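Figure 6 in text form: structure in, sequence out.
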């Protein structure tokens, strides 16, 4: 029985790696698949993993109709047993509904991969529809970690290394392994800092997400001899 499965987790937890591994395993057994992605960090029409793997994929656009694409490929004689759908958080609700129809009416497995929530902790529309419609939601076993060592559950956005909670929902970017030096003026008022913005992401545990305590802020607190686990300033969650 074909399934719609949503593999979800924070940024940098291995979703694209798993997507490419699943494609490899299924195609090695003679199954035919189509790979899709949208806004991959490495550019258009590709699924890329931080482990170095990358494979060509069909770029999903606002106009993409998954149903039409699957039917067209099958009518052309291609074997289509499964779809790999990376960065599925960026798909529209309508596109996710097309994926569900493909499972139910064409018997094609759909394996979707994506982050559930954005930098404000709000569900992406595509992810919300996947959670509503999927046969199964799989949480990845490899956990990204917060700077404090706890399991990371939230995706924070940083501007010049400082966590922000306002801005556009979609800004393609990567997790920062080594952040730029923070502007001390910007630490508690990043939106007013005015410098040319360098946007990055950081995975945090809920405690540190809610306290807006990214790695740089924590380092600064430690420098000042304060405990970053207990936020000294009142930074209410929006
Ligand atoms: N140099 C490395 N050595 C070992 N594992 C790595 C290396 N770089 C990245 N990884 C692994 O790859 C994971 C990120 O995989 P990726 O598929 O790009 O994540 P996602 O698609 O979820 O953002 C990291 O959590 C880490 O486990
Ligand atoms: C939290 C968040 C992320 N994004 C972007 C940043 C990346 O380009 C992708 C996630 O990719 P990954 O393979 O899971 O690392 O999503 C965004 O646009 N908005 C956000 O709030």
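Output sequence:
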């Amino acid at each position: 029985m074909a399934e719609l499965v949503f593999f979800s987790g924070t940024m940098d937890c291995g979703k694209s790696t798993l997507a490419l591994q699943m494609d490899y395993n299924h195609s090695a057994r003679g199954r035919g698949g189509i790979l899709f992605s949208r806004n991959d960090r490495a550019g258009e029409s590709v699924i890329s993993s931080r482990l170095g793997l990358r494979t060509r994929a069909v770029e999903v656009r606002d106009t993409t109709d998954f149903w039409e694409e699957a039917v067209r490929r099958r009518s052309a004689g291609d074997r289509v047993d499964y779809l790999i759908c990376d960065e599925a958080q960026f798909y529209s609700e309508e596109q996710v509904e097309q994926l569900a129809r493909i499972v139910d009416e064409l018997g094609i497995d759909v394996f979707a991969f994506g982050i559930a929530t954005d930098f404000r902790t709000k569900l992406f529309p595509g992810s919300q529809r996947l959670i509503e419609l999927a046969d199964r939601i799989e949480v990845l076993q490899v956990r990204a970690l917060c700077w404090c060592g706890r399991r990371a559950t939230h995706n924070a956005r940083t501007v010049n290394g400082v966590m922000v909670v306002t801005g556009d929902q979609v800004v393609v970017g990567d997790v920062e392994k080594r952040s730029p030096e923070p502007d001390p003026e910007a630490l508690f008022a990043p939106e007013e800092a005015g410098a040319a913005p360098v946007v990055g992401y950081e995975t945090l545990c809920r405690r540190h997400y809610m306290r807006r305590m990214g790695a740089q802020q924590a380092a600064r607190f430690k420098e000042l001899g304060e405990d970053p686990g207990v936020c000294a300033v009142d930074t209410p969650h929006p």
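Caption detail: The chain has two domains: 4-139, 154-223.
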